[in-house]
Amino acid sequence: MTNTSSSPPSQSSFNIHRFANPRTFLRFASKIQSWVTISAIIFLVIGVIWGLCFSPADWQQGDSVRIMYIHVPMAILASGGYFALAACALCSLIWKHPLADLAAGEIGPIGAVITALCLITGSLWGKPMWGTWWVWDARLTSVLVLFFLYLGHITLLHAFDNQQKGYKAAAILALVGVFDLPIIKFSVNWWHTLHQPSTFSIIHAPAMSLSMIWPLIFCFMGFALGFIALVCMQLRAAILERQVRHFLLNE
Amino acid sequence: MKRKTKRLWIILGSMASFAIAIVLILSAFSSNLVYFKAPSQLINHPTVKGTTIRLGGMVLANSLHYSHKDQTPTAQFQVTDGQAAIEVHYTGILPDLFREGQSVIAIGTLDKNNIFTASEVLAKHDETYMPKEVADALRKSGKWDPKYGPPPDAATWDHMTQPK
């Protein structure tokens, strides 16, 4: 950050105020980046090989149950990612934190891809097991709504010439959409759905054999750390790009 | 009041009112959000005959028969929710998971003799995942037969399958 000293004093104080936290974040993120990425890869390799090759087949679903090792992490991360998006939106609207806007911009597309993968793997699983690719039950429909919320967020973010307006509009959409998350979670309990209720709960033992839970945990850890690693990487690039624009183009 | 605090309250307030609006909308449309109806619901609150409905429940043990008409097998079985059972007729390929004791959803119409003619049958599997060995051990213990419904609570698997 040698450039700060060469800019005028007023500009300099503005910079420190505006980029103080992003700077701390950059330093922190570059330190943890390689660790997060490497552990994500290790968890994924172990989890996927364990799940796809060594875990037992289900007594009635047979080998089709292995789609679970991709589908379930994607489903949890689709909701979790949106929760992070909404948290960023809250920070952006109340505290006007510039890092929150950038983070929301990076979480959005990755979350949309994850939700799409959740829908696609679910569909591929539904055809052999349920006998249909898609039904309009409450669970499936609310996840489709989540996918469109992600798409809407991405579109709104880039819909304005004034980027600040775009951030604000997208943040409002992210907050409004957060109500879809409890609907997704509890849809299988509130209404009759084709999708089965949750296997995991706080009060009951999981209705899954331990020999399937462990590879699932590894897969989930791998995908979750991979998600964090991707967002971190993108966010670092976005901060640097913003700084470069600021210094070179005075935007 | 600081501007940040003010913004915080405005956002929290609008989100709270929005949440109330969503709860009201969902509870108003709750009956339309269910994907299927249980047999007892259909019998107690009959709909207009001939409209397409989705009937959901468990295939009753020992109720599955096949009848052959012009070389095409028609599956006949009863779907129950424990309180009422409805006879379902279906001509076509049943999903792999279809069996007695499985939860299914039949899409079709109910005629005046209370016989449900399905145009499509979907299997609804439960939230239990276990290897074949565990299922076999549970069956051998004599405390669970897949014909009569979903497997017992996972917390009981260990002591149910232990040799006495």
UniProtKB/TrEMBL annotation, chain A:
Keyword check for Phosphoprotein: no
Main location: membrane
Source superkingdom: Bacteria
Membrane topology: Multi-pass membrane protein
Membrane spanning residue stretches: 35-57, 69-95, 107-126, 138-157, 169-192, 212-233
Gene Ontology biological-process annotations: cytochrome complex assembly
Domain annotation Cytochrome c assembly protein: ranges: 28-195
GO molecular function, one term: heme binding
Pfam families for the chain: Cytochrom_C_asm (PF01578)
Presence of the UniProt keyword Cell cycle in the record: no
Subcellular location: Cell inner membrane; Membrane
Family under the similarity heading: Belongs to the CcmC/CycZ/HelC family.
PANTHER family the UniProt entry points to: CYTOCHROME B_B6 PROTEIN-RELATED (PTHR30071:SF1), HEME EXPORTER PROTEIN C (PTHR30071)
This protein's name: Heme exporter protein C
Gene that encodes the chain: ccmC
UniProtKB/TrEMBL annotation, chain B:
Positions in the Extracellular compartment: 29-164
Naturally occurring in which organism (per UniProt): Commensalibacter communis
Region of interest: Disordered: 141-164
One Pfam short name: CcmE
Topology in membrane: Single-pass type II membrane protein
Protein name: Cytochrome c-type biogenesis protein CcmE
A single BP term in Gene Ontology: protein-heme linkage
Cellular component per GO, a single term: plasma membrane
Lineage: Bacteria, Pseudomonadati, Pseudomonadota, Alphaproteobacteria, Acetobacterales
InterPro entries for the chain: CcmE, CcmE-like_sf, NA-bd_OB-fold
Localisation per UniProt entry: Cell membrane; Membrane
UniProt topological domain (Cytoplasmic) ranges: 1-7
GO-annotated molecular function: heme binding; metal ion binding
Record's function text: Heme chaperone required for the biogenesis of c-type cytochromes. Transiently binds heme delivered by CcmC and transfers the heme to apo-cytochromes in a process facilitated by CcmF and CcmH.
